[in-house]
């Protein structure tokens, strides 16, 4: 009994330590965002600001169009997440259920495509989007993010489809359900956690993406948050640290909200899947 | 049958609406120039935006659109924009970033576009930083010397001689002073050498260091000669022999050293002149600091700089209008506003005479006294320099300063490995 309690205390301590480790950058960001310039230059930094101020937030909003940039980021990231999942899900189903040579080749290509560096694709991509008149437009950026997220989304979803027992689909067919009905009523609900996780991945990737947004969006009205954040950084990496931290803190919030919303679905779906198995 | 998730529906509809709203705006018949500025400090951004607004008010037919760029990524962003034919008309950058764009045909030759007033107001040594081949590909307008920011109280109490632009420290004297100031866990100097190459090369001009030598055939070779040794050897010895320079700051950027400086750990920090703005903002109440000139060598206070520049894109259909806007932006009184906003020095001779830049407040006068000693950075027009810097020189200098390799190995790597890199660009 005593050994069990000690083990549990150890587990909780380890878990608490891990949470602190994960939360440290975020807490430090909040602390920095609330510090006046003189505290930022202190040799002995404090966890809790001695003289907290909201001036950094005020300055960040005064200097840069953060709300408009957040709105652009939200449209780009949400659009990329939804479209990537809508495209990847049927492809993943086919690749997982029909293990043909073509499906295997497609899987191999997905892995290879992950190795392409940004700089290799950016100029051809820029020219293609220019011809489509999609430079400096958020839909153009969404298109790029979808293409960029698709390989990994596909890779993830193939795994989730394989985790759904084919016997369930066969049972539905025996009960008289058609192909579409089986997919919608049996397979899709069981894949819900996978779809949510994939959407979350695509959302966070697009939300944080910087380079494509930098080169594709020309005017300030269209720029996304990661691009706007670099405006607080000068030559040789000198930064206006307080406003930068304030803006970066605000930039992390939507990701956290989306994660919080989707996380319930991921957990719920996983539990549901466990019971059925 | 499950109903469609309303959140997903809203997101899809939002995206579709955004798609319908896409586009670049309307063409009202006026000339519109896009000016991509890299200004980032609040006062500097304000100064730029105010000047754009003043121009637009006075020139209804030539509207300038202010576009915010970023120093962090300007090269990649411009490269893509040039290749895609979507570059801004007026481009703010640094002179050491222009060579590839100029040789690549992306920037307009401003030789016949720059006004006589600007041409005569900016000294020839500054024009050299933006002259590639026979053409001028940018107007240099802001620059900053590397200075030493010192804890004034510490210096005063130590009794060391305080240098001035008229009577600077020699490099040997500087080493001796830092040795006197250090001890008991404190250091005479903290060198922030995250980017060791440009700092070393630019300061080495004071001792006659050239490193890059252009032959009669126009080809450049690297030779690390006696005049190139003084600055790196001083830094190396301060860190590894005297213990008067902190070894922990060698991998740091300038801002990273400020807390230690304010906390009394280092007496001096060599920094760019514009760092005064951060010091004014962040220094504790009562902290007494002052600006000192960098040490001098056989060539006096000379040092290399890569000024901030304004260029015109070759693809711009309105080059003359763009040049006129640059001329407006760089009128002496406007150059002063931009310089004050960025805490830097203007290149223009008339702007430099402005009393606002010659005040003793925040030691502006020390900087203006150094302006005449600023030269084109040694690597300015050397093709292949960025690769040489990243692959050869940066690791070599970092290892030398940390004491991992000696001077001979540093020379061998800079010359042998460096010349192999440069040769690829000069075939």
Number of helices of chain A: 12
Give me the secondary-structure category of chain B.
alpha/beta
Which strand order does the major sheet of chain B show? Answer: 2-1-3-14-6-15
- Name the shape of chain A in a single word: globular
Number of domains of chain A: 2
Taking all residues together, what is the mean pLDDT of chain B?
91
Annotated CATH topology of the largest domain in chain A: MetI-like fold
> What share of residues are in beta strands of chain A?
under 5%
N-to-C CA distance of chain A:
33 Å
- Tell me the name of the CATH class of the largest domain in chain A: Mainly Alpha
The CATH architecture classification of the largest domain in chain B is 3-Layer(aba) Sandwich
The CATH homologous superfamily name of the largest domain in chain B equals: Periplasmic binding protein-like II
Structure commentary:
Chain A: It is found in: Cell membrane. Chain A: Pfam families: BPD_transp_1. Chain A: It is a multi-pass membrane protein. Chain A: InterPro entries: BP-dep_ABC_trans_perm, MetI-like, MetI-like_sf. The complex is a heterodimer of chains A (277) and B (427). Chain A has 277 residues and is mostly helical. Chain A folds into 2 domains: 48 residues, no CATH class; 217 residues, MetI-like fold, CATH 1.10.3720.10. Chain A is 78% helix and 0% strand. The radius of gyration of chain A is 23 Å and the shape is globular. Chain A starts with a helix and ends with a helix. The relative contact order of chain A is 0.14. Chain B has 2 domains: 193 residues, D-Maltodextrin-Binding Protein, domain 2 (3-Layer(aba) Sandwich); 205 residues, D-Maltodextrin-Binding Protein, domain 2 (3-Layer(aba) Sandwich). Chain B is 44% helix and 16% strand. Chain B has 18 helices and 16 strands. Chain B has a 6-stranded mixed β-sheet with strand order 2-1-3-14-6-15. In chain B, strands 8-11-7-12 form a 4-stranded mixed β-sheet. In chain B, strand 1, helix 2 and strand 2 form a beta-alpha-beta unit. Chains A and B meet through helix 2, helix 3, helix 4, helix 6 and helix 7 of A and helix 1, strand 2, helix 3, helix 11 and helix 12 of B.
